[in-house]
Amino acid sequence: MALCLLVFLVSPASGLNPAHGTGDALSAAQRAYFRQWGVIPADLFEGSAGSVLTPVTALFVHGSWVHLLGNMLFLYVFGAMTEERMGRVRFVLFYVGCGHLALLGYAVANADSEQSLVGASGAISAVLGAFLYLFPRARVTSLLPFLFFLPLRFPAWVVLPFWAVLQWLAAGRTSPGPDVAYLAHLVGFGLGFAYAWGRFGPATKVRAAPPPASEGENQP
After folding, report:
1. 3-class SS at 179?
2. What is the pTM of this model?
3. How many domains does the chain have?
4. DSSP code of residue 180
5. 200 band by pLDDT with thresholds 50, 70 and 90
6. Which of 4, 65, 76, 172 is most deeply buried (CB count within 10 A of its CB)?
7. What is the DSSP letter of 19?
């Protein structure tokens, strides 16, 4: 979280560095920044040397304050317990590895795209998938628009599959909409769940999992 915030603050996307200029100059600096550090599928599969590392660098680049804060909120809520279960080093490798593969999955499906793809949401979606397997009964506070945004608590096995279904529906939408890489979310979510299932299978889970009550109590 700290690294994402630091990278954003010094980037043109934050709008805080006078060296990046204002107006058209700032917009040009932002576009150049995203093209340099984000994933551009067309460049990636042409074998461009500069694009090889972008599926990693793009994980720490965000397009706006809303983009950054939204991702960091999800990482804060679901990351702490997942990291505690996996261990810090393993969690970092899991986060970067799954995020890298999630962006590659999106790039494969959009190989001709020249649009820059940035953000940690693929990696964070992997954290959600792992959280679902590891803590299915942990209660998550949700705000539902059709219930006037009342804060209600539901178990993870209800909230996270519902979230995944929404991503699936959005990924299949043909009408114009926000430039969001929903497919990267789905790939990351599936990878995270599969990793947790493989690493913390039923036998391991019985030995390592805390009592159900503590799962709910520790949920941020």
Report:
1. coil
2. 0.83
3. 1
4. -
5. confident
6. 4
7. G
Report the distance separating Cα 120 and Cα 102, nearest Å: 10
CATH code for the domain in which residue 167 is found: 1.20.1540.10
Residue 149 gets the label, from left (phi > 0), alpha (psi -120 to 50) or beta, of left
Residue-range definition of the domain harbouring residue 198? 2-218
Question: H-helix or E-strand containing 140?
Answer: strand 139-144
Residues with Cβ within 8 Å of residue 70, at least 6 apart in sequence? none
- Confirm if 40 and 58 have CB atoms less than 8 A apart: no
Quick one: pLDDT at residue 143? 56
Q: Which residues lie below 8 Å from residue 8, measured CB to CB, with a gap of 6+?
A: 14, 61, 62, 68
Catalytic (active-site) positions: 121, 185
CA angle 130, 136, 139 (to 5 degrees): 115
β-strands 150-155, 139-144: how paired?
A: antiparallel
